Amino acid sequence: MTNHFHVLVQLERPADLSRWLAGMLRAYVHYFNQRYRFVGHLWQARFKSPAIQCEGYLLSCGRYIERNPLEAGLVTEPWQYAWSSSRAYASGAADPLLAENSYYLEWGVDDGSRQRRWREFLMQEDPKEQPIRRADWVLGDETFQKRLQGYQGRAVQRRRGRPPKPGGQAAGISS
Q1: Is the dihedral of CA 50, 52, 58, 60 positive or negative?
Q2: In this predicted structure, what is the pLDDT of residue 123?
Q3: How far apart, in whole angstroms, are the C-alpha atoms of residue 121 and residue 128?
Q4: Which residue among 2, 131, 164, 172 is the one 20 to 30 A from 144 at the CA level?
């Protein structure tokens, strides 16, 4: 994308994500600064890294990412975008950055049928898209969220807005 990027990765140890991404971003900033003689910040804000439940949400997240150039008006079909895995999944273009995706392989018995089904999936509505857009920390069903909450020992969904005032009264309002 012109102002951000998406990466969907599966790590053996999710705690390694920050270190992995920091190394990748540092290497890219170094390359960019040298190539374009740029000085200053390249990235605006901290990255989002919600935990994603594989069953039921992983393919929808992939769809959301691959449709991003289409939604931004950069292409008329997602697989036309040069910097997307969509070219590999929807058209069979070689991409050395992609690992084998067992979920994608289940979509058909051969490459042609998987590619056709992926193109159809990209172009149809997906009811899971709204939760993906709102995801902060966790994207999954209630059972998955409770399992992560037990593992982390804290709530996995972030409360939106200002925390309530002690005593239950809103600021500036008295009875």
Answers
A1: negative
A2: 93
A3: 12
A4: 164
